[in-house]
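User: My instructor asked us to take a sequence, write out its structure as C-alpha cells, and then describe one feature of it. I'm not sure where to start. Here is the sequence I was given:
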Amino acid sequence: MALRRTGPGRAEQAVATAVVLLLAAAAVWLGLRQSQLSPAVLVALSPPPPPAAVGAASGRAFATAAFLDALAGATPAGPVESYDPETLSDRIDGKAELYLAANFKEMSVRPFSLPDGARLDASVYAQAAPRDAYAVLSSQRRPGAEPNALSPDAYATQNALYFTKGPYYVELSADRADPATRQALAAAGQALYDRLPAGDKPGANAPPDPRTLFPAEGLDSQSLRLAAADAMGMAGFSNVYTADYALAAGAATAFLAARDTPRAAAAEAGAFADFLVQNGYAREAADGLPQGAVFLGAPGSFEIIWTRGGLLVGVHDATSREAALELAGTLEAHLKDVTP
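Assistant: Let's start with the prediction itself. The C-alpha cells for your sequence are:
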C-alpha cells in the first residue's frame, strides 16, 4: 500500500514562506507610497467639508444683528441671519435689486415667538440714508395697508407692520392675524423702533423734504412714493417722488425731484421730455402753463414738465388735458408758497 502524506513537503513550505514574505513586502511598500501621495490625490481621497451656508453672518459683525439680540415681549425662536450686498439675493431672490438700487448696506433677520404662540419674523435693513429707507418702504406698500401711529410713514396690514427710522427699514410679519397677535406685534414694533437710532438730523440750510411739498387738495396720501431708480420707465431717472391725485377733470400724478443745482434740474427735465417724445408723446401748445413748462400729449395721457430752481416738477400720465393743467396750476401755486 502506498503511503499518504498528511502535510506539505519541505519544498511546498519553502514556496509558501516566500509568498508570505513577498505579500508582506508589498504591503510595506504600499504603505510607504500612500504616505507620499500628492496633495491632489489626498484631497480626492479625503474631500473637505462642504462650505458654510452663504448669507450667514460668519466672521463678520453686522450692526443690524445687534438690534435683534432680544425683543421685548417676544422670545427668540432661532439665530440671527445677516446678509450684505453680495448675499442679499440668497435671502430675497427677485427683490434684491429694489434694495440695492436704494443703496443697501446690510440686513439681519430673526424669528421670534409671541406670547400667544404666533411666529414673528423681524427684519432690519440698513440703507445709506433716510431717503433710501423710505424708497424701499414706499415702493412696495402692501394692498390693504393702513397708516400706523408708530412713525409718520409707518403702515400696517392684518398681520404685519412696516416702518422706517433714520436709514433703517423694518418689516415685522406674523403668521396669524388674530387680535392677540396684532397687539403683540404692535408692542414688538414699538420696542424695536425705540432701539433704533434716528440718524443725523438735516441741517438748518438743508432743502425741504419733497414729501412735504405736495399740495393736499385731491391727494391720495397712501400713494406717495419715492422711486430710487428708473422712475416712470426712464433709465437713470432717480430719486423721484410721486403722488396720485383725484381731480374733477380726471386722475393725474404729480412728481418732484430735488437736484443739486438749477442746471442739473433743467438738464434732467429736458432729458425726460426727450424720453417721452421717443415713446410716442408730442410737444403741444397750451395756455396757463407754469413758466418754462413743456406740455406733451399722447392718446389718453398728458405730461407737463418744468423746474423751480433745483427742483424738477411735473404732472405725469394725466387722463385729460384739463386734469393735467389743473394739477400743474395747483402744484405751482403751492410751491410758490412753501419754497423760496
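For the description part of your assignment, you could build on this observation: The chain has nine helices and 15 strands. Try explaining in your own words what that tells you about the chain.
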